[in-house]
Structures are given as structure tokens and as C-alpha cells.
Amino acid sequence: MAFHFQRRRLHYYHRFRFLLPLISAISGALLILFALLLVLAPSPSPLDVNHLHQPRHQHSSSSFNVGVDDDAIGVPVFRVPSRGGRSDRDIWTSRNSNFYYGCSNATHKFPNVDEITPPNRYLAIATSGGLNQQRTGITDAVVAARILNASLVVPKLDQKSFWKDASNFSEIFDVDWFIYFLSKDVKIIKQLPRRGKGGKTWTPSTMRVPRKCSERCYQNRVLPVLLKRHAVQLNKFDYRLANKLSTDLQKLRCRVNYHALKFTEPIQNMAKKLVHRMRMRSKHYIALHLRYEPDMLAFSGCYYGGGDKERKELGAIRRRWKTLHINNPDKPRRHGRCPLTPEEVGLMLRALGYGSDVHIYVASGEVYGGEETLAPLKALFPNFYSKDTIATKEELEPFYSFSSRMAALDFIVCDESDVFVTNNNGNMAKILAGRRRYFGHKPTIRPNAKKLYRLFLSKENMTWGAFASSVRTYQRGFMGEPNEVRPGRGSFHENPHTCICEDSQAKVKRDVGPRKYGKGINETRRDEVESDAQNVEDDPEWPDTDEDEDQSGPLDNDMFNRTGVDYDAVSSEEPELEEMLSD
């Protein structure tokens, strides 16, 4: 019995001895394979923001909460990287910008003001809206005075609108520089003079002109009154000049907007401090103009998926205006007419190549949802600043009570940024887009909201790589590149094509230079054509302007009161609403 047991044990021992090398070889191979997978597998560097509360108004679940079990059932994982990733362009500059420059000098056909301005012909204007809407009115007022060969009285700023700023022209803009710089184009005076020696001051006849009033419109409607009364004041002067004018008048527009209108020294000095502090933190910075105030969202009629809470809160705001009607809350989002949420802006920027180390200056008012709404954007870009975080209360104290002066600080910091981004299509966004084109085509990103909206809705069903690739494709034509928009398309303040010239010598040098890997001019031109084609298709905010309307007849009530805003989901007869939305 003991003998058989010993034989059986020896038998199992020999079998195990032969299997041991095989087991060791398999185990070693598995360990090597596992090690190779660890080395070669790319690290997604996911952004861990699971601890953040998500905004109550998001239209979908959090972009960052990705379940571990998704891979097991074959669902694409949407995981946002902290790095910007690869990009086929320099994210801080515009391609071919060195081949274009701003040009606004008058031609030899534009006579000096002394040759065309008769005595006793005065034009006064009263602007409306916030700082940037008033800026367009001031610019167009100078051109209107030139059309009428009249002396312009320094414009009156709107002190009674939604923005409630009591500042006058000289408290925001350098009035002496304004008068001096334009002295060869238009005679500008600080106030209406007296009639002769010791006479009474001229009393202007007040009137309004229709939107997009052409040269002929001013000559037919305003000039006869001016010749008779000698002084005319045009009220609610916003968007009262046609987009399409003669070359010299368009260049005059540019001289006013980009050279004559300078902020006062206190505003400039404080803004320089803010810019310097951003530069001390980082070589480059992005400026984001974020319009996401409760009033503005309520007015726009846009719905962000916040359920009954959002409908109740924004609905209560809408009831303050009896004439505000919501036609279809889903329509403006589908058509790209709603501001992007802070989270959507952050995802767009990350997809365009801007990593979590990028510094962002945010110019905004009260944000709907407060910190809860801003949390995803701050998680994506922790280096998040505003004038309130980089300046002391004592430094900002002289500006706090004046909304236009506070807006002027943001305007300068945004203008000086390496990249300007907007989530909306308001006046500040438009004016800065045109200004940055004029001064070297600095990158200016405005969302292709119509395409991006559909992409944001379906992002949970795709990988980050697919999402980022689609964002880059959709944003072609929306990045502030030269020749991105057809001449004459959109507002002239946004697209000052007449005042942008091509450096032909620099282009000739490029054309005759060596081509890199067989690509050169044709490749660049193809990009420009594709960008323009996409822009025409996708951008509902840039209609072709100055429709052929009869502006030679008498003024009627409809022409007096016509208004136009970017958001067509609502209809309203409340002027305060438009002023609130304008900047």
C-alpha cells in the first residue's frame, strides 16, 4: 500500500516539474505584454471635476462625468483632456495677417472741411444704449455731419437708458483729441453757439431718421430742415446710417472709430494696469466677453434645459415687460441665435487647442446661476480672472458707479488680449471684431453657434477626439482670419473691409519664395474660399445689409420706431429691452 502511494506521488511530481517551465513562460509573457500596454497607451489626462455641482440650466448631463462601465458596453467615452492637444496652427496668431493692414487715410478727392462747411449749419445728436451702441452712434454722427456739410456738436450720451450712467462725452472720451483729430474732416464744436453777438443760443429742431439711412436719405430728409432751421438734433441715434457708403465716407468711419475715439486718461491708465497684471501672469492671455445675465437670457427667449426652475425664474423676469412675447423657445437655439453657456465656451476653447494652463480674463455682468454656472468653465481653465480679482476695490472705486466707464476698462483689456472670444453677437463683440481686424487681424473667435449647438447636444455619444475635430471644422471661418468674410457682409463696424488693405509687396515675396512640401498659395487661398463658403451657410447673424428700401419719401411712424436685434425668438415694443441687450 505504501509502495503504491509513493509511486503515485512521484508520478504527479514529474508531471508538475514538466509543466512548471510552461506556466512560468506564459506568466512572463503576460507580464511583458502588460508592461508594454502601460508604456504605449496614451494618457487621456482627464479633467476630474466630478466634485463640482453642474449648472441648473445645462441642456444635457455633465460633460465631465463619464461612467467607468461605458467601455464595457461599447459606448464612446467623452473625456475632456487638460492639455490643448495637437493643432495645425499657431493658436495665438492669425495666418497671413502680415499681408494686410488698416488703411483709412482720405483720398485726394475728399475736400478739406473748410471748403465745404458753410456757417450756421449745426447737427446735434443724442445717442442711445450702452457704451458700445453709443460708440457706433458717435462714429456714424461724424459721417452724417460730413454728408450734410454741417458742424457737429459733441454728441450727447444716453443717461436715461437701462444702463443708467450719468457720464457725459468728456468723462469717457478725450473730447479735445476727438475734435483735433477730425479737424480736417468735420468741424466739431462743444456746444451750439449764439445767434450773432449777444443773441440767443440756437434751438435745434428735433427729429429722427430711419435705420440704415443712406446719403440720399439724409440729403432728402434732414438737409431741407437744416437749411430752414439751421440747427437739427437727431434723437435715438443708433444704427441710423447705411452700411454701404462711398469709399471716402467709409474710411472716415474708420478714422473716427479706430483713431479719434480715445478713452480718457483715468480710464486708459487703469486699463493699462489690468493688462500689465495679466501679462505678468502669463505671456499670452485670452479675453472672454461673456453675456449671460438673467435679463439678457430672459429677453432672448432661449431655453437651456434647466426645466421648471429655469422657466419659472426667467419667466418671472419676462413678465416685467408686457409686450415681450416668446414665440418658440427652442427655435433660437436651433438657429444659433443664443449665447453659448460658460461650459460650452470652455469646451470650444479646449477643442481649439487651448489647455488648462491658459490664462483667461472674463468681462461679464451678473451671470445667471452665479458660481454654479461658472464652475465648469473654471474647472477647464483654473487661471480665471476679472477686473475685480486683479484690481483692488480702492482702484476701481472711481469707476464703480458708472457702467460705461467699467465697460470701457473691459473693452481695453479685451482689445489688448492675444485672443478675444465671445459667446454672443452683441455690440461689443462686433466692434472689437472689426477693430482687431483693422489692427492686424488679431485672433477673434466667435462661435458658429448653429453647428455647435447640435454638436453639444450629441457630445455624450462621441469620443473627445471626434468632438474636437468637429469643433475645429465648424469654426473655420469664425476665427478672425483675413478674407474670412465677404466684403459688404455684416455690419461695417464688424467687417470694415474698405479700410483693410493688402501689402502687395509682402505677398509678392511670399509668392516667389520656396514652397514647403509642395503647398503654398493655392492651399491658403483654398482655405479662404472654404471659410467664406461656410460662413455664408452657417452664420445667421450676418445678413446682407442695406436692403433696397425707399428712403426718399416723408418719414412715417414705422420708420421712426423700427428696431432690430439679433434674437428673433421674441417680439417687443420695449426700447429698454433693446438697450439692455445691445452691449
UniProtKB/TrEMBL annotation:
The keyword Transmembrane applies. This is O-fucosyltransferase family protein. Keywords: Carbohydrate metabolism, Fucose metabolism, Glycosyltransferase, Membrane, Transferase, Transmembrane, Transmembrane helix. The keyword Nucleotide-binding does not apply. PANTHER family: O-FUCOSYLTRANSFERASE 16. The chain crosses the membrane at residues 20-41. Belongs to the glycosyltransferase GT106 family. It comes from the Eukaryota. Residues 511-583 are annotated as: Disordered. Residues 529-551, 571-583 have a biased composition (Acidic residues). The gene is LOC103321151.
